[in-house]
Amino acid sequence: MMANLFPTLSGSLTTEMNNQLNALTISAAVRATSKAFGQSVANNFFNARLTDGASVAQVPYTPGMGLGDFQPTNANPPVLPLWGNVTTFAATSATQFSPGAPPVVGSAEWIADYESVRLLGCATCGTPEQQTIAKFWADGGGTFTPPGHWLDITNGLLTTLPILEAARLSALVGMAVADAGITAWNIKYDFNTMRPITAINTCTVGTCGVAGEPGWVPLLGTPNFPSYTSGHSTFSGGAAGAIAGFFGTDNIAFCTPADPASGVVGNRCYTSLSQAATEAGDSRIFGGIHFEHDNARAVTKGIELGQHVAATQLQFQGAVPEPSSWAMLIAGFGLIGATLRRRRAVATAA
After folding, report:
1. What is the dihedral of CA 176, 313, 311, 303, to 10 degrees?
2. What are the pLDDT digits (tens) for 20-37?
3. Structure pTM?
């Protein structure tokens, strides 16, 4: 599957695959049959998604001229206007977990959220802790990105699981973040709302009901796609909901690092999955790139989406482990995740 998705890496991926297979104590016949079967699964699934709409999602975009309409934030084309039309993996549609319409520009909710990001999200605003949170969850270009951050968290939680359960958890989270992206992009380009950098630099009392602040600069670089709803918040809620649904509890304590490419050093630790998802959403306000209404609704609907994925996809045909079966595993996840991350950090440094 990875060779299909990243053909330029096919050589190195094949080498790694063979290294893994060579370490197995199986006969040549079993190896060949198993390898062929695995590759047929990957190829069939890849081919089935060739017409899912992803290949035609990048199209020209003409910004609207109305109050509150999204305006591009850099010279590049706005990102993937038609991604919301991609076929979902587990949700019945891209609108099944829609957070609904955003508040109207100039409404009391919109003004409160505007002031919050203006005061907390500028390049010199916020407390040191808030700035750390913003940078920790930034997951910008060149890093493992927001969905990748949650897949990294998942990797830290599955190391004690039987191999089939580990694969199932990875697949559930993968489907959840994939559908989260489709859901968020459907909403983004449906409502086409402006980013805080546009609002704060151009609003006046007459146009938005609140004074602007020309020259205002956010802490983080603003992504080039509409503001509502937050993709990062939807990804985070989706992954947290899927993991909680898998284990039967949200109350899983764990620690996670930022991507090594981000330059942020150290772990952040949480007592629950939803706590981490909420902080990930808050990071976008602290970074100055989203309003609170972009964030809070997205986390909530993302969790609902993730729970739906865990409840409806890849269900056991035989006996299902009881939630209590996971209790002894959950207690040690923080330490196990830390060990895995140290191993990954050493590999990265090498």
Report:
1. 10
2. 999 999 999 999 999 999
3. 0.89
